[in-house]
Every structure is written in C-alpha cells, then in structure tokens.
Specification:
about 45% helix; about 10% strand; alpha/beta; 6 helices; Rossmann fold; five-stranded parallel beta sheet
C-alpha cells in the first residue's frame, strides 16, 4: 500500500453495489474496486464484511454467483483483508453501547478500522455519519484517479 495516500475501508455496500447492476451507484462502486485492485487507492476490508457481501449477494443473485464474486474479492491482493480478533469484537460491543451505531456489523467495521488506523470508510450508509470516530466517504465522492494520458509523440520533425 502507498503510505502517502489514505487507506479506505470498503463497506459491504460498496462491494455489493459494484456487482448489483440495479444499484444507483453501481458504476462508482465498480470503479472503486477496480482502482483498489490496481493499487490506485489504498483499500482494506474485513472477512466479516466479505461474509456480509456474500450473504446479500446470494439473495440478490444466486449462491453460485455470490461465491464466485467473493472468491474474486479474496484474490485481489492489493485490498487488505482483516480478520476479527476477540479484542475487535469486544471493542465493537463497547461501540454499540457508547455510540449511536445500532447495527453490529457497522460497529465491527468501526472497531476494525480503529484497530488498524483506518480513518475513512467508503459507504452509502449514513449511520457512519452519526459518529466522530471515522469519516464516511460516499462512493460518488471518490476522486477520479485515472492515470494521466500518455503523451503523444509527434512524428513530424
């Protein structure tokens, strides 16, 4: 990962909407996954987030498609995947008690982010805006990081 760029945590909505052609921000989410896969942005997620994406994709598509997509995500080596420790889980329980977060999966994401010093999460979920511990970035707000065009060589002497 490029240490100069911030690392973004990929929420399940980003992973799911990259695949869901009916999603409003499907193109933006797919673009984010492609940028992360190429190392153009630093990205991480957790195995718990991938499990949530697997579950939801199995309902939106088919179990076979969800498994294939999840395996593809696992193969993306430039996207760091974190496992949940007992400490992370205990911290997520504390977050549920002391913050406005109501969904355990959101608290697990925030606990994972705090444990690994990740300040920003790419998500459409506005619940992350209710806490000051992390900054939510909407998929449509990720800057265009396309590589610059190669200069054209002029063959006229």
């Amino acid at each position: 990962m490029n240490k100069e760029k911030p690392t973004y945590f990929l929420d399940s909505t980003t992973l799911i909407h990259a695949i869901d052609k009916e999603a409003e921000y499907q193109e933006e989410c797919l673009n984010i996954i492609n940028k992360a896969a190429k190392g153009l942005i630093n990205a991480a997620t957790s195995l718990e987030t991938l499990e949530e994406a697997l579950f939801i994709l199995s309902k939106l598509t088919s179990l076979q498609t969800a498994i294939r997509v999840t395996r593809d995500y696992l193969k993306l080596q430039k996207i760091k995947k974190y496992e949940m420790s007992q400490i992370t889980f205990e911290n997520s329980l504390k977050l549920l008690e002391i913050t406005p977060l109501k969904r355990p999966k959101d608290a697990i994401n925030v606990a994972t982010m705090l444990e690994h010093n990740i300040a920003k999460i790419i998500s459409e979920d506005e619940d992350y805006d209710k806490i000051d511990l992390v900054e939510r970035v909407h998929p449509k707000d990720i800057e265009n990081t396309k590589p610059p065009d190669k200069p054209k060589h002029n063959s006229d002497g």
